[in-house]
């Protein structure tokens, strides 16, 4: 059974805590989302990183630059869209990136304009599914 730790109201396993600590996400910053959401963001980030590694998209040593990540996220969102994924996968990829890299956020809106625009295009192409109103 995985070792779970209760951390400020959220339950994370040791691996997740190590990843969050390695990415310099403080205990207080972790509380900005619930544990299941943080887990989903970590999975989306891992999938994005795996995609970058498999296509050798990122070969930069040192801190990741916003402009580079923005362009790569646009490509990744295109792949998700063309593969028939739900729009939530793209939204989670962008939100996970911002959660794990707070410097990619700004007080109003996103500092990842290309990725944000790609998500808007995806929404225009495939509106969210909603049930019909009751008669």
Q: Give me the CATH fold name.
A: DNA polymerase, domain 1
C-alpha-based Rg, rounded: 16 Å
Question: What distance lies between the first and last C-alpha atoms, to the nearest angstrom?
Answer: 50 Å
Order of helices and strands: EEHHHHHH
What is the arithmetic mean of pLDDT?
77
Backbone structural class = mainly alpha
Quickly list its features.
mainly alpha; disordered N terminus; 2 strands; DNA polymerase, domain 1; 135 residues; two-stranded antiparallel ribbon
Detail the topology: elements first, then pairings.
Layout: E1 4-7, E2 10-13, H1 14-22, H2 27-30, H3 35-54, H4 66-82, H5 87-100, H6 113-125
Helix pairs in contact: 3-5, 4-5, 4-6, 5-6
Could you explain how this protein is built, in words?
It is built from six helices and two strands, in the order E-E-H-H-H-H-H-H. It is mainly alpha-helical. It has one domain: DNA polymerase, domain 1 (Orthogonal Bundle), CATH 1.10.150. Helix 4 packs parallel to helix 6 and helix 5 runs antiparallel to helix 6. The longest helix is centred in the N-terminal third of the chain and has 20 residues. The radius of gyration is 16 Å and the shape is globular.
């Amino acid at each position: 059974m995985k070792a779970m730790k209760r951390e400020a109201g959220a339950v994370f396993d040791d691996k997740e805590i190590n990843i969050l600590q390695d990415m310099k996400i403080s205990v207080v910053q972790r509380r900005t989302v619930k544990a299941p959401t943080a887990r989903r963001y970590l999975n989306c980030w891992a999938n994005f990183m795996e995609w970058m590694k498999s296509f050798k998209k990122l070969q930069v040593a040192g801190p990741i630059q916003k402009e580079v990540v923005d362009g790569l996220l646009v490509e990744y969102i295109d792949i998700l869209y063309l593969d028939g994924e739900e729009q939530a996968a793209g939204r989670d990829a962008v939100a996970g990136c911002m959660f794990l890299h707070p410097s990619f956020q700004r007080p109003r809106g996103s500092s990842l304009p290309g990725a944000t625009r790609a998500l808007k295009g995806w929404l225009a192409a495939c509106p969210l599914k909603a049930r019909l109103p009751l008669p």
